[in-house]
Amino acid sequence: MELVLAENEKGSEQDAGSSFKKKAGIALGGVVILIVVIVARSMMFSSMQVTPEPAKDPIQAREGAVATLSEAVRLKTISYQDPGKVDRKPFEEFHALLERTYPNVHSKLEVEKINDLSLLFTWKGKDPALAPVMLMGHIDVVPTDEISRAEWKHPPFSGEVADGFIWGRGTLDDKQAILGQLEAVEALLATGYRPERTIYLAYGHDEEVGGNNGAKKIAELLKQRGVELEVAIDEGLAIVDGIVPGTSVPVGLIGIAEKGFLTLFLEVNSTGGHSSMPPKQTAVGVLARAVARLEDNQVPATISGPVALMFDHLGPEMNPVFRTLFANLWLFGPVIMAQLEAKNSTNATLRTTTAVTMISGSPQDNVLPKQARAAINFRIHPRDSIDSVIAHVEKHKHDDRVKIVREGDGFGSEPSAVSSTESRGYKAIATSVRQVWPDFVVGPSLMVGATDSRHMEAIAKDVYRFSALILKNEDTARIHGINERIAIEDYKKSITYYGQLIRNLGAK
Question: In angstroms, rounded to a whole number, what is the distance separating the alpha carbons of residues 140 and 79?
Fold first, then answer.
């Protein structure tokens, strides 16, 4: 009996060992297959960069181009939410500067003033049957405040040319785009160039406060005339240097969509009274809990839409580690998502963001508030909508005492449509960048801010947002911030870029 038991135990041990070896073999085989799939997908992750012919006779910046931008910066074309505060004189002086500096533009193109302060140029193409295109920009700038003014290395409206830069409001946002385009058009006109298709140049005067009296009116006028644009290209994303991880060269990011925006107010009403006899929860307490719930329950994030397309275009240009990660999002997606969500700038590209910006309660510390109110600003991802955001807030505020209020039609809109990466407009931008900066790479992305381009969606097949700016990480804070400036050589290169863009857009 003992011998039989021993033999049975030995057999069981052999079976267990055999089973373990089989499982280990299966696991090892699974790992090998996984590695093969990862490597294969990485190898098949091929470049999507355009490889254009070098530019022929590229436009070069004229000698006085820098001085003209400097002069334009000195004009305080500041926009305000209250139109009554706007000083019209600097805008009129800006118009006069353009007319004086670009005589070919003003004699050979049709020039219209829209709402007195915005400008629309029409450059008639050779073939009226071809769909027209549009380049955009805005004349207005944001104000500066007295507190931060002392921190400027050069005064914000000095237009100082120093240390290899032009300094001041509008050098990045957005006078450099207007003047860069007009410098290129003036030079092209001097060579006798005429585009095959009509090109519009649209320059609004109130982009910084919504564009309702500038770009919107231009769009309405063109719609009345039956104009249907092939593409509209406005300011937006830029060429970023040292910002995209895994890349060793600057990256041109083309905004193929922009987020919408919406401000909702949460309100809680109560009977008020003296703070010495408070209820269990005051109106502020009820409101605070609702606000905390919304911050704790953000609109879900995903790697989709423009951001997914960005990784498709840029992933093949990254170092081997990043290339492998982005070639295998099916496996590494959660890891990449966690990294992107950890930074405010990249988190904003993944989701509709929730920002509590204002809160109010009692006017005095010993008085119970009769009403507590919070303003929450949402920047809406293209996969969401105003209605879906309101439904999200309704679900997560989780208290019937908290009312959702949306005031007027104000400064808010749905997210834009997502434009194609295969269109004439996208390819024209990508080609022009690579012709001027052949070592740079290009990819689509999502614009998290708002531009005047949204007003053109009703009349344009595709809309893009790209500025011919080269920005390092520290430069992004200069836009609407302190020490706004542009490198002289970068500005000159942007003129060459606009010359190529016009040629590429204006062709058949």
Answer: 6
